[in-house]
Design a protein that fits this description.
There is one protein chain. The protein is of the alpha+beta class. Among the domains are: 8-95, Ubiquitin-like (UB roll) (Roll); 162-211, no CATH class. It contains 6 helices and 4 strands. It has a 4-stranded mixed β-sheet with strand order 2-1-4-3, with helices on one face. Keywords: Hydrolase. InterPro entries: Papain-like_cys_pep_sf, Peptidase_C19, Peptidase_C19_UCH, USP, USP_CS.
């Protein structure tokens, strides 16, 4: 009877590491007494990732609002962790330590079938907005999808009908005068929030376009 009366938490998870699923939402309706450890296990089973290979962060459905990952090892329940009954609790599934989530392999798969590509390139500053999204699908191996194109150029992931913006960004990047001028600009962290500084985020994006070993960022 007490279990039936227990409040339930509606959790809506967005996978920000997968361009083909970035517009999809995974929904879980969990009892308020669910431990955080169990939350991660349920999410992993739902999305097909190896538990412990991804982080969960608070989000409002469109953007990350709290860059501090939820503590997977905490003994707290989701109620104690700040989840609210009767409301939509938005979460973002993100890279962990700059590394893509590991896709759960079929039982017949071997370790050789699932190479794990590590993020190569500048990592975000602690507390800053990450830009490590990749073009990755569970139906492909990491090695074929994440490796840099033979042309030597790095693409941009389409964040749902942003092809026009991606084209503009690539055009600016391929204009040496603009790119070099941007590289000479120095960010003053004491005067501006890095997450809201467009020149700083554009500078970071250009560095990734120039140095990343990934197919797309």
């Amino acid at each position: 009877e007490s279990a039936a009366e227990e409040p339930r938490m509606l959790c809506i998870i967005q996978d920000t590491t997968n361009s083909r699923m970035v517009n999809d939402r995974v929904t879980l309706n969990l009892p308020a007494s669910t431990p955080l450890k169990q939350l991660f296990e349920d999410v992993a089973a739902k999305v097909g990732y190896v538990n412990g290979s991804f982080d969960l962060m608070w989000g409002n459905g469109d953007s990350v609002t709290d860059m501090t990952p939820i503590d997977q090892n905490s003994d707290k329940t989701i109620l104690d962790a700040g989840f609210e009954p009767g409301k939509k609790n938005f979460l973002h599934l993100t890279d962990k330590d700059g590394e893509q989530p590991h896709v759960m392999q079929e039982e017949s798969a071997t370790a050789e079938d699932a190479p794990q590509e590590r993020f190569i390139g500048p990592l975000p500053r602690e507390g800053s907005m990450g830009c490590t999204n990749d073009y990755v699908s569970q139906s492909y191996s990491y090695s074929s999808v994440l490796s840099k194109s033979e042309t030597g150029y790095v693409g941009l992931v389409n964040q749902a009908m942003t092809c026009y913006l991606n084209s503009l960004l690539q055009t600016l990047f391929m204009t040496p005068e603009f790119r070099n001028a941007l590289y000479k600009w120095e960010f003053e962290e004491s005067e501006e929030d890095p997450e809201r500084s467009i020149p700083y985020q554009l500078q970071r994006l250009f560095v990734l376009l120039q140095t990343s070993k990934k197919r797309a960022i």
